[in-house]
Amino acid sequence: MPKYYCHECSIKRKLLDENYPLTNLTGSSDQLGKFIKHTSPTQSYDVNSIFNDKDYSDYKNYIINTLASGSVEVDDYNRKNIVYCAGKTIGFTFIKGSIQIPADAVKVVLHQDDYKIHSYPTSSIGFMNEICSNCGKSIIK
Fold it and tell me: CB count, 10 Å around CB of 108?
């Protein structure tokens, strides 16, 4: 069963590094592929979320903002995902080529791997209130 942590407890429990060095988020082939997939896809996917803005600096800022204040989910496979509500529409999710859901949140995955860290826009519609598994503070999941 996944566990959820507030930003502060995530740092204390070493689930997040508060001084994460982000120098190049398209430096590996995995990262470049994810950047293209979520900003200007060159192929069709059954489900794909795409940022409104294709600018690299905006993409990087979404990752930085998420890492700086998002809540952390530790899933059943011990993967650590960070979620952040952007407070505005930042993209859309397409299902079989049709716009389905506006995206107003960001999910960062593989943040602990310098060559695989990436983000994608998502919808906060499925987000719920959760309690931090460590301190009991109210967070989003």
Answer: 22
Q: What is the pLDDT of residues 28-80, one digit of tens each?
A: 999 999 999 999 999 999 999 999 999 999 999 999 999 988 999 999 999 99
Q: Write down the domain spans for the chain.
A: 3-140
Say whether pTM exceeds 0.85: yes
Going by C-alpha positions, the residue among 7, 25, 29 that lies closest to residue 16 is 7
Q: Are 83 and 123 in contact (CB under 8 A)?
A: no
Distance CA 91, CA 58 (A): 12
Dihedral sign for Cα atoms in the order 20, 22, 28, 33: positive
Give the whole-number percent of the chain exceeding pLDDT 90.
74
The rounded distance, in Å, linking the Cα atoms of 15 and 11 is: 6
Strands of the sheet containing 91-95, edge to edge, are 47-51, 91-95, 98-103
Show Cβ contacts of residue 61 under 8 Å, excluding neighbours closer than 6 positions. none
Torsion region of 75: left, alpha or beta (phi above 0 gives left; psi -120 to 50 gives alpha):
beta
